[in-house]
Amino acid sequence: MTEIGIGIIGGGYMGKAHAVAMAAVGAVFNTTLRPKLEMVCASSDESAEKYRAAFGFARGTADWRVLVADPKVEAIVIASPQETHREIALAAFALNKPVFCEKPLGASLEDSRAMTAAAKGQISMVGFNYIRTPASQFARRLIAEGAIGDITWFRGEHTEDFLADPSAPATWRTEGDANGTMGDLAPHMINGALALIGPMKSLIA
Predict the structure, then answer these.
(1) φ, ψ (nearest 5 deg) of residue 124
(2) What is the pTM of this model?
(3) CA quadruple 73, 78, 81, 87: dihedral positive or negative?
(4) Which residues 6+ apart lie within 8 Å of 59 measured at CB?
(5) Alpha-carbon gap, residue 64 to 132, rounded angstroms
(6) In 3-state terms, what secondary structure has residue 44?
(7) Per residue in 130-166, pLDDT tens?
(8) Coil, helix or strand for 96?
(9) CA–CA distance, 12 with 48 (Å, rounded to integer)
C-alpha cells in the first residue's frame, strides 16, 4: 500500500467535501494509492487549526505557499476563491506537483489560459463533478448512441439554495466577479452542455 500526501487549500464548503472524499476513497474503491490528509490551508491560523482538527489533517497553515512547498504534500487541491487559483497552480506546477483545481479554473480567461499552458505534461484536473454522476453518464451514452436522435437545442439551468437565507453572512461568493451564477456556477452548465452535445453554435443567456 502506498500513500500520497494531500494538501487542500480552502477548508470551507468544497474543502470539506474534498477532505471527506480523500479520507474515504481508499476504503470505498479499494485503491492501492491511499490519500493521506497532510496539510490544510485556510485564511487564518485559527481557521486552519479548526479545519485540521475537524477533518483529520496532520497539520494546518494560513499560508498556501507553505503548503505547496512542503515536501510531504505531494498533490494539491485548490478549493479557494477563483482569484487565488492561478498563482497557486503555477507554483505547484513549478514543483511538478499534481493539481486538482475547483472550477472556474481562473478568475479570467487570461488566468485560465496561463494555467492550462503551465499544466501541459503534468497531472491536473478541474472539478467538473456533475457530468461524472451516473445519471449524466447514462444520458451521455444515450445521446452518443443516437437513442434520442439529433440534438439541435439544449436548455440548461443550475439552481442552488445555499444563498437562499437572507440572514446568512456575506462570503466571497457574493462579492465582485465571483458573484452570482456567471461567476461561480455557470462553468458546470457549460461543461455539461459540451460533454453531452458538443460545441455550441449560438447562445442565449
Answers:
(1) -155, 160
(2) 0.88
(3) positive
(4) 38, 39, 40, 52
(5) 29
(6) coil
(7) 998 999 999 999 999 999 999 888 888 888 787 788 8
(8) coil
(9) 10
- Say what angle helices 45-55 and 13-29 make with each other, to 10 degrees: 30
CA 143 – CA 45 distance, rounded (Å): 49
CB burial readout 99-115, b (16+ within 10 A) else e:
bbbbbbbbbeeebbebb
Q: How far is CA 8 from CA 45, 51, 65, in A?
A: 15, 10, 12
Cell readout for 175 is: 462579492
Q: Give the three-state DSSP class for 87.
A: helix
Distance CA 194, CA 116 (A): 18
Nearest Cα to Cα of residue 128 among 187, 52, 204: 187
Count the neighbouring beta carbons within 10 Å of the beta carbon of residue 180.
Answer: 12
Torsion of CA 170, 172, 176, 180, to 10 degrees: -80
pLDDT digits (tens, 9 = 90+) for 35-56: 999 999 999 999 999 999 999 9
Cell of 51: 479545519
Cα–Cα nearest to 39, from 10, 12, 17, 13: 10
CA dihedral of residues 31, 192, 187, 7 (deg, nearest 10) = 0
**Residue 12 in grid coordinates:** 470551507
- For cell 479548526, the residue is 50
Taking the C-alpha atoms of residue 191 and residue 160, their distance in angstroms, rounded to an integer, is 17
